Amino acid sequence: MKKRWIGFLGIGLLMLGLSACGVSGGHSTTAKLPNSSKYEPTLFFHGWGSSYRAENQMAHALVNAGITKTIVRATVSKRGKVTLSGQFRAGDYHPIVEVDYQDSRNSSPEQWGRWAKATVVKLQQTYQAKKFNVVGHSMGNMAIMYYLRQNQANLPKLQKQVDIAGHFNGILGINDEPNRMKLRSNGQPEKMQPEYQALLPLRQTYPKNQIDVLNIYGDKDDGSHSDGSVSNALSQSLRYLVASRAKSYQEQKIMGPGAQHSKLHDNVRVDRLLIHFLQN
């Protein structure tokens, strides 16, 4: 009985010690890094039904390019609780954060945007982050866009936005068919889906002259002018929403079999574009 009581006392003291040190799940709840204003994490947002694993090649391409040595994972629960695995390293000013949505089959872009905001807030609370970059693939782009639609007062400033295979105005086989979606000369879609219409306020609220935008889309070169899931026009509809207010806006088309929708996040040409954009 005495041994059991001592064991419980030891566990209690250990937990008290961890609490006093601000440790949760082996990670500090706040991290006082020197020169915190210099840190500019890049957050990767995966697509619908996917996970952080879809982000691995791009993340490691940045590591291999010497941009960073740090990859942290931000796991977002169905209820929006964000848990960080790993930690920023002192002096490594461009860490990567692989965002992992546990409810990745949720079809609400509003919910994805709220989870994105929760992730940004978590990084601000933990590391006093003041600026950041984002990279989205497929539905991950809607997480970014619906995040930007929310109130961002007192949040870190978005510096660079990379959109890959974005279905901003629909998906082939659901509300579009190959070569059917048309854009007007100013980039406005002739027909707008409800999710796209909900983003129209960004034409007035997207941060003015703050964000550099790189829009990457795929063309399988099979006559469909699409990546197999999203037509080029659907991806290019981003321009109408943000180009007039962005600091800069550019588009890059990837051609060939490797430009298929789910292959774009593992495409070395995409890696090179991403590295060049983030380094400059």
Q: What does the secondary structure layout of this molecule look like, with pairings?
A:
Layout: H1 2-20, E1 23-24, E2 27-28, E3 42-45, H2 56-64, E4 71-76, E5 82-85, E6 96-101, H3 109-127, E7 131-137, H4 139-148, E8 157-164, H5 194-197, H6 202-205, E9 212-219, H7 232-236, H8 238-242, E10 248-255, H9 268-279
Order of helices and strands: HEEEHEEEHEHEHHEHHEH
Gross geometry: globular
Total domain modules? 1
First-residue to last-residue Cα separation: 66 Å
Please list the strands of the largest sheet in the order they lie side by side. 5-4-6-3-7-8-9-10
What does the average pLDDT come to?
Answer: 90
Notes on the protein architecture:
This is Alpha/beta hydrolase. Keywords: Hydrolase, Signal. It comes from Levilactobacillus tongjiangensis. GO terms for molecular function: hydrolase activity. Residues 1-20 form the signal peptide. The protein has a single domain (36-279), classed as Rossmann fold. The chain has helices at residues 2-20, 56-64, 109-127, 139-148, 194-197, 202-205, 232-236, 238-242, 268-279, and strands spanning 23-24, 27-28, 42-45, 71-76, 82-85, 96-101, 131-137, 157-164, 212-219, 248-255. It has 280 residues and is of the alpha/beta class. Residues 1-28 have low confidence and may be disordered. Helix content is 31%, strand content 20%. It starts with a helix and ends with a helix. The strands form 2 sheets. It has an 8-stranded mixed beta sheet, sandwiched between helices. The longest helix has 19 residues, at 2-20.
